[in-house]
Amino acid sequence: MPIVPPSKLAELQTNVHNIRNVCVLAHVDHGKTTLSDALLATNGIISNKLAGKVRYLDSREDEQERGITMESSGISLYYKLAREPTDSDSDAESTEYLVNLIDSPGHVDFASEVASAARLSDGALVLVDVVEGVCTQTVSVLRQAWVENVHPVLFLNKIDRLIVEWRMTPSEAYVHMQQLIEQVNAVLAGFWEGDRLAEDSRKLEEAKERWRETHGDDAPMTEWYLEEKDDSQIYFSPEQGNVLFGSAIDGWAFRVNHFAATFAEKLGLPSPAKLQPLMWGEYFIDPKTKRRVLTRKQYTKLYGTAKAAAAIPLFVQLCLVPLWQVYESIVVEYDQERIDKVISALGVKVLPRDRKTKDHRALLTVVMQGWLPLAQACMVAVIEQLPSPAVAQPLRLPPLVHGEARSQADKKAVEPTNDIERALFACTAGTASDPAPLVAYIGKIVSIPRESLPEFSSGASKGDRLTMTADEMRARGRDAVRRELALNRESASGTPLSLLSPEDPASAVASGMATPIQSASALSQDASSDSLVDAMREKLELEAEPEAGEDEILVGFGRIYSGTVRVGDKIWAMQPKYNAKSKSAQSYLKQITVRALYMMMGREFVRLKEVPAGNVFGIRGVAGAILKSGTLASDPLKCPNLAAMHSETYPIVRVALEPVNPQDISKLVRGLELLNQADPCVQIISQSTGERVLVTAGELHLERCMKDLRERFAKCEIHVSEPIVPYREGIVRQSGQSGVQLGEIGSSGQSLAIITKTMHNKNTGDSDEQTEDQIRTKPTESQLPRGEVSMTTANGMVTVTVQVEPLPERTTRFLLRHEDDIGRVVKLASASQRRNRLHAASEALGGGDSIGAEDELETMVTAINIDSDEDEDNDESMQTKTAKPSKTSELGPWLQSRLRTTFRRAKGWEPQRVEHAMASGLWAFGPRRAGPNMLVYSEKMIAHSSKAHTSWFNPRNPNAAESSSAATPAILSSPDESDSDEHSETAVVPDSAGKAKTVQYSIRDFEESINTGFQLAAQSGPLCFEPLAGVAVTVKNFAYNSSSAVGTGSAISATEAVNSSVLSGQIITTVRDAIKTGYLQWSPRLYLAMYTCDIQATSEVLGKVYAVINRRRGRILSEEMREGTPYFTIKAAIPIVESFGFADDIRKRTSGAAIPLLLFRGYEPLDTDPFWVPTTEEELEDLGEKADRENVAKKYMDKVRKRKGLFVERKIVEHAEKQRTLKK
């Protein structure tokens, strides 16, 4: 096919019905880039012989070296589809299509790139290696396509391996591929079932609400039924045309309709459409007539059971048998005579030099590309099976516009409610006289070298020259000559453009009085040449460019959904947190000027003047306005802010960075800013100590980021610390600990407290006397239970009693898994409480307007996007398993119910305590108010708190506000009166004038101080200052000491003692230290961040794989052999701290036969006490007093403490009396 000029591609952008936006998704090394190369060859961008070898879309050097894709990249392709003539038209109908292809990575570390590609696309080509089958990333990309409502087409790749490597027969290969398609459909069925359960649950709740409104709260609902829905359209089925079979490396592919069109007439069928449904499944050719297709039942009736069992299905006989014959004659057993017969039978044109070649694989590629061309089969499948933007947007955009997850079980189109939604759903581009509202989404920010952009290059690049016609090249030459003449004229006059008089438009630009576009328009009125005007405009644009002098230019990669964007337009950039009804809206909104538009052509960029709706494009000018992704709109007040993207991975690996040369610190800071924008999965954290931390998704991702920093962004030498792995600190209830008193703690527990106290003193520089003055533990006559601590503030005014204990393991796992969900519920509850306070204040002032608060709450309810997928506990019964609701407002009651269930099934918490905590006692989660720790108020305390705590789980319950206002104010009680009904105490203290005054405090004045102390303790544990996990803190008493407030000889004056701010701060520190003290009375544990490792390996290297996993302190979760293959699938759990270098190690040990895939799993406790020492007689006999066995938990703890600059118990000098002997 001849090379297609960019002008032709730009012309096709205006026909939205003939545009296909497609992404290529697959597991790593399943053939995505090879397939993309074959599609690029159709436009003459690369040669057919180089397809699969040049890896054109892998433009990075490290991508070429490693052989994997690391960044998603797009390219626009032209395809002319020739259809069969109709009865009304004697000539074949030809249609031209524009296919915007986006290649995406397959490695788990770059899953954020997959999310960007899926958001910008309407369809997807999902590749599956028929040998490796459905892998972990295959499921991930299918889930990504499902979440984004992207319509997929399945491509079963590498079928040649079944012939050449496995030597399967056609019938065996058919059964194998049939099972593979069933596995993929099972994954989709799981997604459908989850969405269906969520949809039915939502509809049931709505039906119950309507029933209560009409029949009352006590009336049982009788009218409810489940609606039957057809899910056949979501599955892959070859007879439907949405499954491709092929080999990308050999350049061939087909769908069953290709063979149906070939054999329909021979089998006596009137049209290929009659044969296509029979091409997959148990359909057979009648062996006698050869012109009739029989079912299994008909075949058995005619020829008997034995012959029916040995019959060959139609797909095998017509499709696979010819394929096997070609491979066996050329590759397996080279036979020249047989090759000539095969070529003649297929009708393929093969040159004599190709027939005589010694490279059998090259001959095979020529034959297969002539018989079943890969690009043609894929392009036709994309055009026929995948929707255009006009068809896809009415189904895809409602969840993005309204901001809440919508089940794919309901495929009905949503009716638009306003003009903007009508333009969005119809993909309206508008015209110059009747413009449509502009709405576009930037999926990612790409960093491009300055010289790679056409406007910054010295001349036309090689790619531009290759894609330009002769007329375009001559026109460009004339423009260059005229531009040079204009610059010569400027130098001859001695007046540069920046010093023109104010009457000149160019001077107005320099003084800020006009925009470059306006000035260029004014210049065009007086200029004698259009080329001179273009030269002036380009020069003014480059002078006004904010990135002038930068080697890297940030370009947004996006998709326009409605309207038309043009160069010079002033539009608004909205970040994901932007909300037009919020008071902080201006912080996330910025007006930008479109400086350039590009058509993405892989490594090349073609400048465009405008881009209509339905296309993907590149835009320059969003730098500084959009960080990673965002929405572009012409009217930010009316246009919706499209929902944020869903990603399957989260950054977990951290490293600290610093320049080798301290003078390069500014380069490092600027480089990190560019990297943060150019990589959608990177996080940059600036610590309070000045340390700069880079957070990445994995080891490979970290290597790529450091390469970019050193060579492109910072361009300086950088020192990288060892990976900083997150930990969690927890406690466990060992046997015999539940009822042990504080005085019965053995030497191990006492030494733990002493060591931690010494560490605290060493780090803070405080002496023991200072610590005793600041933290005074209340003496008691009877010993308190384990974990219960009573502490008094420094001024002796308030005594707080807390009970620290471990949460059940099942509950801890649930809280760790649902931290994000808890955060959303807490955020919504905070908005609801703020709404109630504003409403109460407006009523107190005479009924003010509270509509703003209502709108803000409703907006927050619809703006928070909830993922519908969840990894449930394996031992959970299906009877109690309920679907996770799709609406945030319904998530609170669901979490409350599930949390109650986890408590009931676990041991250690009495049912009465569980019901109290779930009903009203749960005060907060931590750390950051959404972590896996709980702050609970006792029954005595909850009776005097300021609000009903059920509002966390049911924030929109109207009864919550009533119970909040009706709560009894609790007055700080004296310790002697803690059991009395009257909790009141007053203090007579001198005011600033010396006069006596009465001060009265209640617990509601210091509830936030208690919560803050809990959050601080949960954020920084006593072992190595890492967040806590699985810890429950119960506030049992909050007492006021009247005798200590005034007249006790305290150094603090009475006026200062009752100062609420001082007392609040002392309560915070007291609660924090009390929690840490209670924590140390239990047996501490470290929670390790874990990876799930998926490995496919043969039996020959299975032992080596196990050896590497065991050496990395991993454990095997499952092992199974794939049916019909020699591969074992091993699933293991490996600590992240031990995973660095794991992939290289396992590749070396297995000679590349096994490649691991690491995915973040969560946190798991390490069942080893960091302070364990041998104490029993058996332990001392086996290990000795020095404990020769390494304490892994202590090693991890000391490593973290040393990195943070904390005290570590380590001998610096082993033998001080010995002298080192030096060699001469």
TrEMBL record:
It is found in: Cytoplasm. GO terms for molecular function: GTP binding; GTPase activity; ribosome binding. Residues 17-273 form the Tr-type G domain. It holds the Pfam family GTP_EFTU_D2. One of its GO terms (cellular component) is cytosol. Residues 760-784, 868-891, 953-992 are annotated as: Disordered. The keyword Zinc does not apply. Keywords: Cytoplasm, GTP-binding, Hydrolase, Nucleotide-binding, Ribosome biogenesis. Gene3D superfamilies: 3.30.230.10, 3.30.70.240, Elongation Factor G (Translational Gtpase), domain 3, P-loop containing nucleotide triphosphate hydrolases, Translation factors. The keyword Transcription regulation does not apply. GO terms for biological process: cytosolic ribosome assembly. This is Ribosome assembly protein 1.
